[in-house]
Fold Ribosome hibernation promoting factor.
Amino acid sequence: MRYQISGKHIDIGNALQTHVQEELNGVVGKYAERPTDANVIFSKNGAEFVCETTVHLSTGLTASAKAHAHEIYAAFDGCCNKMETQLRRYKRRLKDHHKDRVEPVELFGASSYILASDHEDEDSEPDTLQPMIVAEMETKIQSLSVGEAVMQMELAGSPVLVFRNEGKGGLNVVYRRDDGNIGWIDPQN
């Protein structure tokens, strides 16, 4: 597995990098087959250290976790524990997923935009209804079954996931509802 371990405005030593590789290898190797790469980013938020970890699996699925603590090792350990909990919860489905799917998850290109929020005066009317684009990026939309999409959303810790439905071919959305359930939007073609 390839590792990219970095710090935002903080120095990451060799001992921490070795600790991250050993611990993450143990957790990911135990619950998921064929991980391809891991991205671990450490940063500082006030007096706390923040650790964000993303692990990409060879099937195209991604697992993410984030934790914070007053010490950098504790932040990583908390993040690693969250990752382990997610992977343990989906271990059977990840293993079954590998057997059913011979090819990796198919990805389709799409554009992603960041729009400026208008924080001037919330009581005043906006000058135009056209939002200002702050950034434009390339993103990928996965071709998944509905069950795989829910699993991917949970593993990534996302509130919403847009995917291409393998069964019907159209774009679908799964999202976490306020009541804790999962919502699924399946537009009619």
Observations:
- The two ends are 41 Å apart (CA to CA).
- The chain has a mean pLDDT of 83.
- The longest strand covers residues 133-144.
- The CA atoms of residues 113 and 136 lie 5 Å apart.
